[in-house]
User: Fold this.
Amino acid sequence: MLPPGALRRPLAAAARLARAGARSQVLASLATGPRQNNSIFYEIRTYDIKPSKMKEFVEMVNKYFHLRTAHSELVGFWSVELGAMNKVVHVWKYENFAQRSAVRHALANDSDWQGKFISAALPLMEKQHNEVAYLVPWCQLGKPPKEGGVYEWVTFQMKPGGPALWGEAFRAAINAHINTGYTKLIGVFHTEYGLLNTVHVIWWNESPDHRAAGRHSAHEDARVVAAVRDSVRFLESQKNMLLIPLQCSPLK
Assistant:
């Protein structure tokens, strides 16, 4: 007959393994899931401009922003037409955080940039906001099929958990809209700094009316309806803006 302690030891070990497994499951449920296989990230900057100064600010951007783009890659620069007022949004691509630090240092020491743009532009602004975001693993940054359209910027506040939690359902909803053919996906980003569990989706449309007609048709498509209904269980809120590209914007 085995001594009592010999029986208790395997049982205790099994209990510890079970607890460790449960902890691993909890940690897995909180993980954000895979990312792109590189260090590239995007800085999203949003500026609120004084209402009486919006025209002046846009003119300054178009005139002097080549001084800024000499330092790093601009993805797009837009003014908001609907969904907000006197607001601009611009997106910058960086290979890593070291590159961004070097760029910020160079900009601080660029006398042309500081003197011709920054010193004149800051008094025109009411506030500035930035976020750092990654493309979701299944999305590559796209381009519009032609110039001259409009962009829709949709922001989703998701439940905590990241793409590991909501990614599959969200991707299905995005693809359902793509498959209708009325719109072009530019990018899907989820935040790393700023308000977490935020997803920004950028769409391109030929015109506001083309978008409206496409949305109306999509809402009657059973595949879109089913995919959206499945994804909203992970959604807390959403908002959208209609954007007009500035002259300096690579995405036009």
